[in-house]
Amino acid sequence: TLYVADTFNHVLRAVELATMTVRPITGRPGVAGIEDGPAPEATFDAPQSLATDGASLFVTSFQGILRRVSLADLRTSTPLGVFEEVFARDGDARSARLGGAVGPPMCDATRRVLYFNDRDASSVRAITLDTFALTTVAGAQDVSFVRDGAAVAARFAGAAELVVTADGSRAYTADSNGRTVREIDLRARTVRTLAGACASAGNTDGAFADARFGAPSGLALDEANGRLFVSDSRCNTIRALDLPRGYSVGEDDLVGARAAEELSELRSAALLGLVLVLVMMCILLESLILPGAV
Length: 294
Fold this sequence. Notes:
Layout: E1 2-6, E2 11-16, E3 21-26, E4 49-52, E5 56-60, E6 65-70, E7 76-81, E8 101-108, E9 113-118, E10 123-128, E11 133-139, E12 149-150, E13 159-164, E14 170-175, E15 180-185, E16 190-196, E17 206-207, E18 216-222, E19 227-232, E20 237-242, E21 247-249, H1 251-293
Antiparallel strand pairs: 1-2, 2-3, 4-5, 5-6, 6-7, 8-9, 9-10, 10-11, 12-16, 13-14, 14-15, 15-16, 17-21, 18-19, 19-20, 20-21
């Protein structure tokens, strides 16, 4: 099942991928509001995006609130934030405040943490799902600019999408206005620029230090193959960061790399076939020679 925040219809919907059918979950089409309660009564005001831990949907918004929808009974609640008190403040569930979230949140269901980009606070923030306490992971509510360093000192120009590694040790964010892709060490609480340069826009591949972006906006992490895919909304391209090599590649390089892999697979298959033929020939010769020698 694919869950969708249908922003301008003010509803949440589900796409059943096996049958390619769409069904409503909660919210009233065309009716904006913030009413909690069972599915027929709950309303949403331009739900921005969502994530799930398997038991609930967590819905971010532009109005400074976090909504939770139980998948068991489809009841909606507001566990964090106050409607239209849109500013950043860390604290417990009662005192914390949220800015406008940008990009889908990332749920670490194992560690019970929900990460999201708070555009109003120019920061990456974390919500502990068991208590709904809110902390700032990196960045601060400050003038937006790009600066690496310790989490409290680091700054983002316009963090958009966020992805987190399976072990929860690192996060990557597309800093759109900063024209960079940033890496956050969640254990050491440090931030560094992985690729791109704030002062230089472009569409250049190469080593991370030489690569240039127009406005990186979307990310997808392929940990198995060590690649971070980046959509650049200004350059209308999809790029791939080869994390082990520290190299940015474009479409031609990806096609070439796949062609090289396929060629290598064909060579391996051909070599294996040749070995099998030689083995069979040896067995045949042995069967022909040995009877005459006895």
